[in-house]
Amino acid sequence: MVDPYTGEAAGAPAGAGDAPVLTVEDLSVRFRTRGGGRVEAVTGVRFRLRAGECLALVGESGCGKSVLASALLGLLPGNAETAGSARLADGLDLLAADERTLARRVRGRRVALVPQSPAAHLTPVRTVRAHLAETLRELTSGSDAGAAADRAAFPRTHLDRYPHELSGGLAQRAATALALIGDAPLLLADEPTTGLDRDLVHRTVDELRAHTRDAGRALLLITHDLAAAARIADTVAVMYAGRIVELAPAAAFFGAPGPRHPYARGLLDALPERAFIPVPGAPPELGALPPGCAFAARCPRADEACVRRPELEALHGSDARVACHHA
């Protein structure tokens, strides 16, 4: 069993085994506002991710998932401030790297992105073949766009089509093909199943799993689709108001004993195949977070203890870590 927080095998000494593909320590992101204030979008995130593993980062829209991915790739806007570290296996800190290093050594080569709404990230006046050929020239010495398309099961008969001529599923496959060209050891998939029907969701997730587990890559899957996460993840991290509130092995999270944090339990109960009961209320504004537990106003178990902010801590006899006074 692997501790999802430290990335080490249970009972193994620290540092045992291969170095994680990605080690995130106390990553925080805040944005300066025009009025001189600060918005805390991500706070104190920590996790490790190894080759062949998938970590699913789940939570409602606006909880900080995509901000975290943008921080890892150095794609935050100019008013963003970061703290902490995000180190690759050789020690390169993505948060400290300059734009030249990120552009020439990291993006596409060591960390690749499968973006949300792939069609919006493809140049509308260029065919899929042209996109693939340009990326091949930039990242490799190859030139076979057809072979690159085959890796993501993109049909060669559609290589000369433009983005607007592609279905949602084909646009997603084109984006995946582009991400795979550089053989990056780390894939970031940001809401890759948005807008797809359930059959295409399953196909997309299965393909990402094959490109991760079978190819020895690490995958950080950012999604609000818990069914997709259950299908592919080894570990689940639940974010709420910019913080990870639960980090647990997927088998325990989706099976027995299930989620330990009230918010995480609420997310599962909201699924149609379960109780189909939505979490009441709405997340707090990130610019006006309460001093204690950010979920307290929506939590059925909140009491006077919740005026203190809970820390992400290991549960006795469990591989899960939970930020809740009542876990």
Descriptive report:
The protein is α/β, with parallel strands linked by helices. 28% of the residues lie in helices and 21% in strands. It has helices spanning 65-73, 99-106, 118-121, 128-139, 145-151, 168-180, 198-214, 226-232, 250-254, 262-269, and strands at 22-32, 38-49, 54-58, 80-88, 111-114, 186-190, 218-223, 235-240, 243-249, 313-314, 321-322. It has an 8-stranded mixed beta sheet with strand order 5-6-7-3-8-9-11-10, with helices on both faces. Strands 2-1-4 form a 3-stranded antiparallel beta sheet, covered by helices on one side. A hairpin with a 2-residue loop joins strand 8 and strand 9. The radius of gyration is 20 Å and the shape is globular. The model is unreliable at 9-17 (pLDDT under 50).
List the helices and strands and how they pair.
Blueprint (H helix, E strand, L loop, with lengths): L21 E11 L5 E12 L4 E5 L6 H9 L6 E9 L10 H8 L4 E4 L3 H4 L6 H12 L5 H7 L16 H13 L5 E5 L7 H17 L3 E6 L2 H7 L2 E6 L2 E7 H5 L7 H8 L43 E2 L6 E2 L5
Parallel strand pairs: 3-7, 3-8, 5-6, 6-7
Antiparallel strand pairs: 1-2, 1-4, 8-9, 9-11, 10-11
Helix pairs in contact: 4-5, 5-6, 6-7, 7-8
